[in-house]
Structure formats: structure tokens, C-alpha cells
Specification:
The chain is mainly alpha-helical and about 260 residues long. It is built from 10 helices and 3 strands.
Length: about 260
């Protein structure tokens, strides 16, 4: 039988723990109850030892990275009791799109944009880093994914300009991403009067803000000046912004293909 992927298993554990999470101080979470429900959901007719090991691995990974912690209270501080930490409770508030739940995050992203293979590979590694508590590595990987999305848009613009016989701004072909970003913004800014109103307003409000947040966090991690050059909150923000940046890039891409003259 097919074995569920790690991100599917992780999502199943989080969803079941949330379903069983006490809504008042009188209840408790127990690992056995949650794990039994997860295996019954993923393999209701057949117990696969490989799947059971994978479920245990993901459960302990959620403990290791601070989504869960052992214990109910000081009178019951040990397994099988466990609870959601503050980090875990924050993740629950946006479980369908939080990077702590890669399956939900990727589903949300897929409703907004389809990434090229390079951007997708970096994003998958970024999610793995984030959920392994490798925050600096996650910052670099999600930044690389965002840059790939921008370079995709740049390439589409160059191809369209060539097909129209229009001159290509020299800086669009620079090897430095900052130069490319500035050149791309300058060109699109000059054309925004031709955008539909909604796209023009979104471009004016968010294009620079999206790129600046993700790029700054990535550069802080990639050119460190301290032991902790970036915070978990800033990297988490990059993940939440990324789908919106990808969606805006998709809209601009479609405008270039269909409307640029």
C-alpha cells in the first residue's frame, strides 16, 4: 500500500491533536489516543509497521521543534500527557496556511499560484528547514524561492518585449538580483497606468513591501553580523507573505502575456 508522505502525516497529527485538544482546563491530550486516531485515519484497514514508525517520527519531531510539549500539569508532567505550546497554539490559529503545517501551506499556495520547478524545490526545503527549527537556513531558502519567482517574471517580460520588437532595458539582464528587481519595478511602474485598477492598486501597495521583507530577511541570514541575525517571527512572516507575492507575480505575468503592447 502507498505510505503517506511526511507532510501528510504531520498534518494528520496536528489536525487530530486539535480535534482532541481540551477546550477548557478540565481535559487533557494523551499521545496514545491521538496516535491511534491518526493511524486509523491514514490506514483504517491495514497496520503497516513502516507507517507506524513514520507517525512516531513526525510526532516526536513536533515535540522536538516545540509545537508540542510533554505533560498536562505539574502533577502530571510526563507522557502520555502532552499539550500545545504557545508556538503550537499560534500555528493552530492559521493551520490551513501556516508553514508549521506544510500540507496546508502548500494547498493554500496552490490556490494562488503555480511555482516553477526551481522555486518549488527551494520552498519545499525552506519548509523542511523551518519545521526542523533551522531558522536561518529557512530564511535563505524561502528568499531564494521568492527570487526565482521574480526571475521568472523578468524572463517573461524579456520574451514579450523581444516578440514585440521593443528595446530590452539593459539592467533586466544583470546577474545581481537587486539590480534586476529595481529594473523590473521601474519598467512596471512606467506601465501601471495600463493596468486594470485592481492590479494597479495591488502593485502600488504591495510589490515593494513584499520583496523588501523577504529579501531583507534572506540577506540578514545570508550575510550574518550576529549569532541570531534573523528571528523566527521575521522568517515566519516571510512564509506568510510569499504566497501573496507569488499571486501578484502571477497576475503581472498574465498582464504581460495578454495585455502588454
Amino acid at each position: 500500500m502507498a505510505i503517506a508522505s511526511n507532510i501528510e502525516i504531520r498534518e494528520a497529527i496536528l489536525a487530530e491533536a486539535e480535534a482532541q485538544r481540551p477546550k477548557d482546563r478540565g481535559g487533557n491530550l494523551q499521545s496514545g489516543s491521538v496516535l491511534e486516531a491518526v493511524i486509523n485515519k491514514l490506514a483504517p484497514t491495514f497496520r503497516d509497521p513502516e507507517l507506524e514508525e513514520a507517525i512516531l517520527t513526525q510526532f516526536h519531531d513536533l515535540l522536538r521543534t516545540g509545537i508540542f510539549a510533554w505533560g498536562l500539569n505539574l502533577s502530571n508532567p510526563n507522557p502520555p500527557f502532552f499539550h500545545f505550546t504557545d508556538r503550537g497554539r499560534n500555528a493552530l490559529e492559521r493551520l490551513s496556511r501556516d508553514p508549521s503545517n506544510p500540507a496546508g501551506y502548500l494547498r493554500n499556495l496552490s490556490t494562488k499560484a503555480i511555482l516553477n520547478s526551481v522555486a518549488n524545490s527551494y520552498l519545499l526545503e525552506a519548509l523542511e528547514c523551518f519545521n526542523s527549527n533551522l531558522i536561518k537556513a529557512a530564511a535563505v531558502m524561502v528568499g531564494c524561492s521568492a527570487e526565482s519567482v521574480i526571475l521568472d517574471l523578468r524572463d517573461q517580460l524579456i520574451a514579450k518585449l523581444q516578440s514585440l520588437g521593443h528595446p530590452i532595458p539593459a539592467k533586466l539582464s544583470d546577474w545581481r538580483i537587486k539590480i534586476v528587481l529595481d529594473a523590473l519595478y521601474t519598467y512596471l511602474e512606467s506601465k501601471k497606468g495600463d493596468f486594470p485598477r485592481e492590479l494597479r492598486e495591488e502593485f502600488e501597495a504591495y510589490w515593494n513591501a513584499f520583496g523588501q521583507q523577504i529579501r531583507t530577511t534572506r540577506n540578514d541570514a545570508g550575510h550574518p553580523t550576529s549569532v541570531d541575525p534573523v528571528t523566527e517571527d521575521s522568517v515566519h512572516a516571510s512564509f506568510l507573505i510569499f504566497p501573496e507575492q507569488a499571486a501578484l507575480s502571477k497576475k503581472l505575468n498574465e498582464w504581460i502575456i495578454n495585455e502588454l503592447k
